[in-house]
Specification:
Elements: H1 4-14, H2 22-28, E1 38-41, H3 54-59, E2 63-64, H4 71-81, H5 84-95, E3 101-106, E4 109-116, E5 123-129, H6 138-153, E6 157-160, H7 166-173, E7 176-177
Helix pairs in contact: 4-5, 6-7
The chain binds coenzyme A.
């Protein structure tokens, strides 16, 4: 049986990228440090780019699918910048056909990535932008590109799992929290 307090402690110690402390929880918009899953209505995404910020529109030019020779480099970069768990999910996304990972590239270097159908089918994420490139629309461009692809593949909704930056998902994708979704599909997972 799931015990909320125990699970919260486990996530806090094992997954520092997620909302693990009261400080990051406040900054990112998590409630009491608890990360819930969020639901995104793909059929309600803006069809035209008008609602997007100029920064996001500019960043969209950097977003693309990687080609084969880039795969190992991208997985290594995700592990260095974020975590082994996210690198594992990136590897899954790169093995999917069609590939379900998008990368943002600037000056021949990855600066951000997003996956879908990696943690589980229908789940968008992980998503990460390297610290020096944040707040420039890159995250929004990546998330939007992934959601547009999921919609084109036939999904009606996307799930963002154990969201560590709920305000970002709300802002960019109109995501809404799913009640009683902690720890959701991560319950009982293997720890390193
Ligand atoms: C969350 C993350 C991907 C956002 O990337 P980013 O490139 O900085 O985001 P953008 O610049 O595209 O921001 C888009 C909008 O979301 C807002 N936003 C970005 N990060 C936010 C956050 N953590 N909390 C609240 N709002 C946020 C921005 O202010 C911007 O709003 P605007 O359009 O009104 O200006 C990035 O901060 C990151 O990699 N964080 C660490 C990893 C992480 O937590 N990933 C999410 C796990 S669920």
């Amino acid at each position: 049986m799931y015990m909320a307090g125990v699970a919260r402690k486990t996530y806090a110690t094992r997954w520092p990228l997620w909302c693990g402390s009261a400080v990051s929880a406040d900054r990112n918009g998590c409630k009491n440090g608890v990360m819930s899953d969020m639901l995104i209505r793909l059929y309600a995404l803006p069809a035209t780019p008008e609602p997007l910020s100029a920064a996001t529109l500019a960043a969209e030019r950097l977003v693309r699918k990687p080609i084969g020779c880039e795969h190992d480099l991208i997985v290594a970069w995700v592990q260095t910048e974020f975590s082994a768990g996210w690198a594992s999910e990136a590897r899954v996304a790169l093995q999917n056909r069609p590939i379900s990972l998008l990368v943002a590239v600037q000056d021949d270097q990855p600066i951000g990535f997003v996956c879908y159908d990696a943690t589980a089918r229908g789940v968008v994420g992980p998503i990460g932008v390297q610290a020096s490139a944040r707040h420039s629309g890159v995250g929004a461009a990546l998330l939007r590109a992934a959601l547009v692809e999921m919609r084109a593949m036939g999904y009606g909704y996307a799930i963002a799992g154990a969201v560590g930056a709920p305000a970002f998902f709300r802002r960019v994708a109109g995501a809404v929290e799913i009640p009683d979704s902690t720890p959701g599909l991560y319950a009982g997972r293997v720890h390193g």
